[in-house]
Amino acid sequence: MTGPRKASGGGVMFDGKAFVAGLSTAPGVYRMYAADDTVLYVGKAADLRKRVASYFNASPKVTRTMAMIAQIARMETTVTRSEAEALLLENQLIKSLKPRYNVSLRDDKSYPYVLVTSDDWPRIAVHRGPRNVAGRYFGPYPGVTAVRETLNLMQKLFKLRNCEDSVFRNRSRPCLQHQIGRCTAPCVGMISAQDYGDAVRRASLFLDGRSDELTREVTRDMEAAAEKLDFEDAARLRDLLGNMRSMQARQYVDGKVAELDVLACAMQGSQACVLLLAFRDGRNLGTRAFHPRTNGSDDPAEVLAAFVSQHYAEQTPPREIVLDRAIEDVPLLEQAFSESTGRRVQIKTSVRGDRARYVDLARRNAEISLATEMSSQAAQNARAESLREMLGLSQLAQRIECFDISHTMGEATVASCVVFDAAGPVRGQYRRYNIAGIEPGDDYAAMHQALTRRFRKAADARAAEVAAVEAGTDVPAAAEGAGILPDVLLIDGGTGQVAQARAVLDTLGITGICLVGVAKGEARKPGDETLLLPDGRALKPGAASPGLQLVQQVRDEAHRFAITGHRGRRQKARTTSRLEDIPGIGPRRRASLLKHFGGLGGLKAAGAEQIAQVEGVNAALAQRIYATLHGLDPGPGAGHD
């Protein structure tokens, strides 16, 4: 359902009361749009008509809300089956549409997990990023330190392996981890598959927070071993039980094992910090600070409510969430979280004892983190202001992009594009370009290709936007957001690279971008860089210049991102090409070999006899693989099988 559009010159105003008259009283989600079709706000409602009507009645409203209402050109609503369903849809839309007036999270770091793989001999490890490895994932944890402490504890208690598969498959004797009592050495058969499987299962129970069940099981097995006069096994289980109880005795919360998150919000003006203090199975997993975009809100309760709703829409909530202040919709949030987890989830704001002390601790840490962030942001603003003065910009750069090229002797050339806004890096908008069809080592052609691919999309998107406006139609979905251009474009290189960038922008008809080349000094020493401008000027601000420090920060990030992409592409190319060059190795055999040995490194470390044990590989082919990987003559009769 939509209301009338507001004319760009201020013609027809949005008639909120008329729009409300046609609304349903069902639960749902509403969206407010500005005249340029950008989303102003997304909200949920138990009663759409009543909630939306509250924006257009005569009751007093805060300045931020009045400013938002004044910009409404149209509204849309979506009816849902329940208020809990509306809550989920609201969170999804806030994340995808990024409305101008919603409080939203801005944490581009993925959470770390503990991974227990599903191999025959599972390994335990830290995992961050996509869950593309088969196994069980435990977490998320507030930070990598908490994960490492957990892994350390797992190795002490259950002695699971943490080595890579390629190392595990090629061990001939126990490693140092076994010698210091942190691994049972399954690589060389020093533990049976059944006993190792029991250790993995017990570790999983522990990570699942089922310590009471685990304690009962270990106690039962210990007593059974003693009855069978297997005193060695009984002593081992006794030590395990003692270590577990000792650890739990040090980390109990309120006299019982707890699973809870403690949240506190600190604000200065419209700057906010939400501090999360996590406990799982009675263990303190540490803290993590979040700095959400408040979009003008100065109400800590509103910020905290938005955080709780959005954060636990993506992360599994614990059984108990303790907040430092009351928020709206607590019964609804408890209902939604309980339904999503299949167990009761409670949200508390008035607590005593240890929990009250944890709230105080979280609040103080939130205030410290906010002060640190604001200090860092002030320094970032100072660097941005210095850059504005140095480049003669009329206002602070709101978007900076930097391009860099990375290759080794012309091999596997990769171009990177990193993006910074006023708050720092915007990692979700980083891009890599695999360069092809150029002479190896031609940096100018590589830069030209990468820039053309980046800005052709922007030029096409802007043309589509203009055509849509002229035709009075909606902007194509593929063009929305694609036409965003940087205020400053940094090119890592000298006059040749800058000339390539200038040529690309001129060809595509793109103007209004401040183009800057970043040339290294003679000794490649940080601070000696020369900034090359399109008008021929060369600036050498010096190491003390805050503006140059910002340029260095962006350039170094582009360099890091390019090198990472190049190394990955080069390794993939080498892994693939060296095996493809061997007669008799097709895609299926290549995949089997790499899977069996955990990669090219493990395959290269294996002997011909070990290679011949892989399904589909006979002795002659194994000898040919070994010889090719080690630069040896494969000998006579080394043709196809």
UniProtKB/TrEMBL annotation:
Span of domain UVR: 212-247
PROSITE patterns xref list: GIY_YIG (PS50164), UVR (PS50151), UVRC (PS50165)
PANTHER family: UVRABC SYSTEM PROTEIN C (PTHR30562:SF1), UVRC/OXIDOREDUCTASE (PTHR30562)
Primary role: The UvrABC repair system catalyzes the recognition and processing of DNA lesions. UvrC both incises the 5' and 3' sides of the lesion. The N-terminal half is responsible for the 3' incision and the C-terminal half is responsible for the 5' incision.
Record note on quaternary structure: Interacts with UvrB in an incision complex.
Residue ranges constituting the GIY-YIG domain according to the UniProt record: 25-103
Family, per entry: Belongs to the UvrC family.
Gene: uvrC
HAMAP family, alphabetized: UvrC
Name the record gives this protein: UvrABC system protein C
Coiled-coil ranges per UniProt: none
Compartments, as annotated in UniProt: Cytoplasm
Claim: DNA repair is one of the keywords in the record: yes
UniProt keyword annotations, A-Z: Cytoplasm, DNA damage, DNA excision, DNA repair, Excision nuclease, SOS response
Organism: Luteimonas terrae
Keyword GTP-binding: no
Domain UvrC family homology region profile: 262-505
